[in-house]
Amino acid sequence: MSIPARRPAQLVGISLAYFMVLLDTTVLAVAEPDIMRSLDVGVVGVGWATTIYTLALASALVFGGGLADRVGAYPVFVGGVIGFGAASVACALSPDLAFLLVFRALLGLFAAAIVPSSLSLIAALYREPGPRGRAISVWAAISGVAMAAGPVLGGRLVTLDGWRAVFVINAPLALVVLVLCRTRVASARHARATSWLPHLGLAASLAVGTLAITQAGRRSWLLAGLLGLVALGAAYGTVIVDRASAAPIVPAALRRNRAVWVGFGWGAAVNYALTTVIFSLPLLLHATAEEVGATLLPMTLLVALNPLATGRLVAAYGPLRPIRMGFVAFPIGLGFVAVATAGHDRPFVLGFGLLLCGLGVSWTLPALVGFAVGHAAPEAAGSVGGILNATRQVGATVAAAVASTTLTHRHDGGPAVVPFVIAAVVCVLGLISATMPHLSRSPDAEAPSASSRLPK
């Protein structure tokens, strides 16, 4: 059992592990052009390096939470950190794209072990509500720095030693986490059933759907259509299997909860738009990796810092108002980004657009956590976080696939603004859904929730 005096060090270690996971999603963006040059791959190839990570993470997040409940959070956490560090080194040593994709997928699986188990460990270390709330705030603050630091740190690493350095950095971070968390943390175990089939079905649906998008980008319409039908069939089969599973991804209490699924859709929409910006800009800006990292700062700093102000907004007005504010700011910001990338030498327009995008993310994501939890039945509240994170990664996976295929045609004279326009449309759809009357009439929709202050 953990020694109380070591709790601060362990909290820092747990937070640093989540920092490492989030850093990997942002630090890679600025390395994309260097990966393309080094491995001689196109935009679609580097797109798969992004999507395969988020695909694996989305497919395994709920399973990772169930595994932590079944065998204990500490061994799952430690195994995830060790695996993440080792897979990162393997990514750095990859001789070609195929090897990189394999190890990126493993990174996603190990990240899916780290994310849910880290919160379980905090709950075990801090059993009183007050200290636990403060600990979660520290966890959120430390991990939130990854969003702001990722592009800048990644740009510096790429400049110093190429794209492989952005993976090498994870190895010493993992060692620091293991040292800080070397004292075992006792956590409750639950005799929960586990089932691989729903998660494998989800992974297959996302993988085939991504292939369909890439084939559509190549104008192979027949193959894209066939793959799309296969993806839809796999998704439908996954739903059927999940309903019959002893350990479903979606508990029965959530299946017909329309409001919660709207919240999940908002999470996917926000991550779609965010990933579109982070993935696309490094490929469009004629700048060094360091310059790209600095360019993204107006957005990433707000994503890291503004959730604290969003918590106060939710406390005063409920979650729907900041959600709507976010879905107003985001498409306007994407419009400015599209205008800036369509022309040349428009840093002010681009910076203002990224600022609005940062407000869009930081207003929306923290608030929709509280909205979804507030509409869930008590017995299903624990599942909401896992499914919400999974649907967010689904949005990121689709965004990277769409952006990579649309930007491929830029070299054939296609416009660079297309991915940003598509993302803006997705956000507008989010805004329309956030104004549905039945959400406003719901007694929980405007009720302030402490969950709204939980990390993204």
TrEMBL record:
Pfam families: MFS_1
Domain Major facilitator superfamily (MFS) profile: residue ranges: 10-442
Superkingdom, natural source: Bacteria
Keywords: Membrane, Transmembrane, Transmembrane helix, Transport
Ranges that cross the membrane: 41-64, 76-95, 101-126, 138-157, 163-181, 193-214, 220-239, 260-284, 296-315, 327-344, 350-373, 416-436
Topology relative to the membrane: Multi-pass membrane protein
Main location class: membrane
Subcellular locations according to the entry: Cell membrane
PANTHER family on file: MAJOR FACILITATOR SUPERFAMILY MULTIDRUG TRANSPORTER MFSC
Name of the protein this chain belongs to: DHA2 family methylenomycin A resistance protein-like MFS transporter
Source lineage: Bacteria, Bacillati, Actinomycetota, Actinomycetes, Streptosporangiales
